[in-house]
Amino acid sequence: MTISAVLFDVDGVLLDSAAAHRRVWNSWSLARGLDPEKVWQLTFGRRPEDTVKDAAAHLDPAAERQVLDELLAQERDGILPVDGAVDLLEALSGRSWAIVTSGDRAFVEARFAAVGLPLPAVRVYGSDVEHAKPAPECFALAASRLGVATSACVVVEDAPAGITAAVAAGCTVIGLTTTHPEESLRQAHMCAASLAEVRNLLTTKGLLVRP
Predict the structure, then answer these.
(1) Which residues of the chain have pLDDT under 70?
(2) How much is the pTM?
(3) H helices of the chain, where?
(4) pLDDT at residue 205 in the model
(5) In 3D, which of 177, 207, 206 has the Cα closest to residue 192?
(6) 104 catalytic per annotation
């Protein structure tokens, strides 16, 4: 297996945002008379507007996305890097990597700048594709922009929808157990409990990063 690039999801992988997103979705759900727990289960790895379509088909997804973005903006100072994110991205300096997220471009880039995480040259957001995760389009687009085959990419994902997308794209997938237990990530080719472990996997398996 020859690996040329690493593709990272953002929320739950590089940014510790689960608690903030939970508060946002709870607030939104209660305001619209929906069951917060049921809605929360629909959110992982997906664009907010796609969650709205499934949770409340009678609402306008675009309008609700604006509301959700405003709620999330109020949480921005509570979103920090996942442990090990800075060290791992520093180890990738000069190498080929990208972020592939269902999140918002402006919000993600502002948080990366605020917490000192470097942004790669290639960044794929939910708005960049017609069919977001769990469809494979986002990972195929990132690989194309990097000029490599999807089979030459390792994806680091924490959500089942993202893992489904990455596997369908033909990537090798590391499931990071920051938001879901390992049994929920069984589609991944391997699992890791931390970004330090991800770095070790990339190193010891000769995938990309060297000590």
Answers:
(1) 1, 205-211
(2) 0.90
(3) 18-31, 36-40, 48-55, 61-73, 85-91, 105-115, 137-146, 160-169, 195-204
(4) 63
(5) 177
(6) no
From 11, 16, 104, 158, active-site residue: 11
With tokens 């510790």, the residue in question is 16
Count the Cβ atoms, other than its own, within 10 Å of residue 178. Answer: 18
Tokens, residue 76: 């921005």
Asked if residue 51 lies in contact with residue 102, where contact means CB atoms within 8 angstroms, the answer is: no
**11 tagged catalytic:** yes
Sequence-separated (6 or more) residues with CB below 8 Å from residue 53: 61
Rounded to whole angstroms, how far apart are CA atoms 126 and 116? 23
Angle at 126 between CA 124 and CA 129, to 5 degrees: 80
Q: What is the reported pLDDT for 3?
A: 85
State CA 46 to chain mean position distance: 9
pLDDT attached to residue 32: 97
Residue 211: what pLDDT? 42
| Alpha carbon distance 52, 42 (integer Å) | 9
Closest Cα to residue 151, out of 196, 194, 189, 203?
A: 189
